[in-house]
Amino acid sequence: MALNDVIRDARIRRNLKQEDAALLLDVTVQTYSKWENGITEPKASQVAQLSEMLNVPTQLICSGQLTEKLTLMDFIRAVSKQTKDLSEFEIIETIWHNIDDDARFIDALKQLNHKDEYEAVISMKKIVR
Fold first, then answer.
1. Burial class (CB in 10 A: 0-12, 13-18, 19+), 122
2. 3-state SS class at 112
3. Sign of CA dihedral 72, 77, 80, 81
4. Mutual orientation of helices 88-98 and 117-128 as an angle, nearest 10°?
5. Distance (Å, rounded) from C-alpha 39 to C-alpha 68?
6. Where is the signal peptide (predicted)?
7. How far is CA 92 from CA 14, 87, 117, 121, 128, in A?
8. This prediction's pTM
9. What does the domain layout of the chain look like in residue ranges?
10. Cα–Cα dist 48/26, whole Å
């Protein structure tokens, strides 16, 4: 999948028209259309805006990958189902391999007001089970 495919598919998932996306990004419809048709590519600053608007990490846009974001409840159910027989280490290692921004994740854990990051991850695991 290419960058243009990712932004087109993500825009469609958000039920936005090209005109709406262009307006939100403060670019012309022609400019936005060229991005989706693969004629040109957005600047780095515009990729950041696309990421925010489309709720897709910039890394995924640039790498041409599009993932599906589950609802929180669907995510909890899926994680709960898959982690029954895994150790805490296996769960933490899997999280570490699959998050894009380690520092942001750790900061989010700190916001949970736990004594340290490890306790927060353990608490999250208990919530999921």
1. middle
2. coil
3. negative
4. 100
5. 26
6. none
7. 31, 9, 11, 7, 13
8. 0.54
9. 3-63, 72-128
10. 13
Could you tell me which of 39, 71, 42 has the C-alpha nearest to residue 55?
71
Instruction: Let me know how long the chain is.
Output: 129
Query: 3-63: which CATH topology?
Result: 434 Repressor (Amino-terminal Domain) (1.10.260)
How remote is the C-alpha of 98 from its chain's centroid? 11
Of the candidate ranges 4-18, 22-36, 93-107, the one whose mean pLDDT is the lowest: 93-107
The 10s digit of each residue's pLDDT in 42-58 is 999 999 999 999 888 88
Tokens of 116: 């340290």
DSSP state string for 21-45: HHHHHTS-HHHHHHHHTTSS---HH
